[in-house]
């Protein structure tokens, strides 16, 4: 995410490395590099200029002149300004109204329908709500089908009227349906066009006026940079939306949209969406995003994701098994599955400071563990629970079942054995109590 911008900022800060003091000259050079980095990330010129003017004036402040490490100080100033540019603090998302009505708007292909599915899943699983998805796209029957498929995947009801060509009427009928069926959040996925167009705008504005939504979310593809910002402006002029959703952050996004939207429309980014998995919706935190852009990782989000998967009882059981040197293949695969539930692997690794950058060209797919999983899945429950029972002939069978070479099974067995030896050694150390942390 934003790799090029991260690299460019890092090299801008390098100008200051080894400098004992901040001077007019080295600030000027650094600031120039930062501005170029922002422009290359597709940040609007005016925003980039204002940003760097602020950084410059902060850096030349009296206190700063005496600073010990100008490089670190500059990073801190830029971090604060990036956070501010993206909205400062986390924006709230209204869900208290009963029912809460959420209108989703944006161009076709921006990711509206996928986001609607993700949001319904998020509200259902994380907020304990009873959502209803509403298909208000009267032009593309395929869009209605898509929403039904998503609804089924996340276990959320979908309301649609295939023959009705009046989007306002559909939205109103959906409200009545929601009341009847005790749904407390209504998510209305509207029709999009390939470009901003008057008929589409009028239609969404009419829905807005008819049902008075609690939240109007404008969904935008972050890959489209400055175009995203212009589209946001057009939608905001007509809809006065309450928040922005940035999608496709998993792609090779330069960062322009994330950095410019708040400034341009003065509406907060509320959610970011990366990937097509329906359980990967993230609340947007400007400070954490700024940290990630600066290559500092995002430990807070990583810990939160781990905590969501943390099951205290299971963790205690696992700790006991590790202490008794009974860690087996079933435990191993359970742990793998927990990690995978935290989200997209590359995204998770990117939250570790420095790792995102180091791994930017490495292709880690979510299939990275597939081979190991196949091997474990080819074992019998008895073998999984008793790793030492796996004789050479059993290894043959496991290799065959998993579609692997015997040498691959042998290599995995060896690694697993080394891991167990390591656990054994740690158990003997006085710090063994810390192993409890492994359970997450
Ligand atoms: P809509 O026309 O606005 O409803 O957009 P869709 O939800 O149909 O999404 C358009 C395309 O983008 C589909 O192929 C989605 O699978 C894909 N898509 C949506 N959100 C994301 C995302 O966050 N990351 C990636 N990589 N693809 C996405």
Automatic annotation (TrEMBL):
Family, per entry: Belongs to the GTP-binding SRP family. SRP54 subfamily.
Described purpose of this protein according to its UniProt entry: Involved in targeting and insertion of nascent membrane proteins into the cytoplasmic membrane. Binds to the hydrophobic signal sequence of the ribosome-nascent chain (RNC) as it emerges from the ribosomes. The SRP-RNC complex is then targeted to the cytoplasmic membrane where it interacts with the SRP receptor FtsY.
GO biological process terms, semicolon-separated: SRP-dependent cotranslational protein targeting to membrane
Assembly with partners or alone: Part of the signal recognition particle protein translocation system, which is composed of SRP and FtsY.
The organism's place on the tree of life at top rank: Bacteria
GO MF, any single term: GTP binding
Coiled-coil segments: 296-323
Sorted UniProt keywords: Coiled coil, Cytoplasm, GTP-binding, Hydrolase, Nucleotide-binding, Ribonucleoprotein, RNA-binding, Signal recognition particle
Location(s), subcellular: Cytoplasm
Main location: cytoplasm
InterPro entries, per database record: AAA+_ATPase, P-loop_NTPase, Signal_recog_part_SRP54_M_sf, Signal_recog_particl_SRP54_hlx, Signal_recog_particle_SRP54_M, SRP, SRP54, SRP54_GTPase_dom
SRP54-type proteins GTP-binding domain sequence ranges: 268-281
Presence of keyword NAD: no
EC id: 3.6.5.4
The species this protein was found in: Arachidicoccus ginsenosidivorans
NCBIfam families for the chain: ffh
UniProt-listed CDD domains: SRP_G (cd18539)
GO CC field: signal recognition particle
SUPFAM superfamilies in the record: P-loop containing nucleoside triphosphate hydrolases (SSF52540), Signal peptide-binding domain (SSF47446)
PROSITE patterns in the record: SRP54 (PS00300)
Biological classification of the source: Bacteria, Pseudomonadati, Bacteroidota, Chitinophagia, Chitinophagales
PANTHER family for the chain: SIGNAL RECOGNITION PARTICLE 54K PROTEIN SRP54, SIGNAL RECOGNITION PARTICLE SUBUNIT SRP54
Positions of GTP binding: 106-113, 189-193, 247-250
Reactions it catalyzes: GTP + H2O = GDP + phosphate + H(+)
Protein name: Signal recognition particle protein
Comment text on domains: Composed of three domains: the N-terminal N domain, which is responsible for interactions with the ribosome, the central G domain, which binds GTP, and the C-terminal M domain, which binds the RNA and the signal sequence of the RNC.
